[in-house]
Amino acid sequence: MSSEKVVYPPEFLAADRGPVLIGISILFLVIDTAIVALRFWSVRLIRKSATSVTLDDAVLLGAWLFNIGLCIVGFLVVQHGGSGRRAAWVLQTDPSKMIWWYKLVLATEWLCSPAIALPKISVLLLYLRIFTDKASRIISHALIYILIAYVVAYSIATGLQCIPLSYQWDPTIPGGRCFNVGLFWKSLSFPNIITDVIILVLPLPMIFKLQLSNGQKVGILAVFLSASIGLIASCIRMASFFSVRLLADPTWDSVELIGWSIAEPGLYLFAACAVQLRPLFSKFARNVGLKTQYGSGSRKAQSGGGSRVGNIRLGSMPSKHGMDNDASSTTNVIVTRDIAVTYEDGDSDRDSSNEWTTHHSHHVK
């Protein structure tokens, strides 16, 4: 019984989505590098030593390296693996590209889980410097251990998806076998979404307990909720994995799948960095002469060395009978109070702590 050779239309074989994946790789290569640079610039503004490096700094640098690795794979899988072209075209023109495609997809899987988990761990380490209540600290520690276990388990499972591993690109190996690779790829998003929700909800009770104005609370809340961009990306990635027939036309379909595997970790990295950009924004606002107004000075000032309110240390403010009385003898003097929400790295040195600052000013006639 003879089998007929399948003839594909020329326009079918000529289709090429590779430039889309190249564009995604370039975009996140630039975004990842820029946001990490801005984040380190921002924290440098509020640290006593410009060379000091905290644990979450090191974790974030590791996340950046894994994200850059994913972007590089995005280039290579198009150039050497035929990603973006129809599998039929690849097999007709250069079948060896399919071997490269499988190997580079394997590299994507190994890079993706730590690239996703490390930005989250960085945020949780930041939480541990902010939270003082026992429950929040326990949850933060537990999530860090869960994320580490997730990376280890997923990396091991990636290496065991086919036995031997080379059976994935060489099905002629006798006795080789693979588990359901498509289901394995889809499963990556579920734990991400669960941990995302917990990380987003965790700081909310602390923020609502702060003795600050509603405007200030909204500002701090917006900083923390910027991390929701990672949750949105994870949901979209999961939807794309379930909407595409995985491995039906592997090189063609991989543009969307690898593209989201680059975008999702990149957005997690963006969110982790955005949480700590407030000092940089404040510096920019001061340089251009902007101030955030919060009324006419009716808020009662806190004197002394600061107090614990809502589990965050409020920076000291000038007493009302000190600065205000001195200023009352001069016309057109602007009295400015900084309300600084700070969190410390284990000591009382304000220069080594991180902070969010809003300006409260009024004219004294």
Automatic annotation (TrEMBL):
Topology in the lipid bilayer: Multi-pass membrane protein
Transmembrane annotation, as ranges: 20-38, 58-79, 99-130, 142-167, 187-208, 220-242, 257-277
Location (main, coarse): membrane
InterPro entries named in the record: Rhodopsin_dom_fungi, SAT4-like
Assigned keywords, A-Z: Membrane, Transmembrane, Transmembrane helix
Protein biosynthesis is among the record's keywords: no
Name assigned to this protein: Integral membrane protein
Organism: Byssothecium circinans
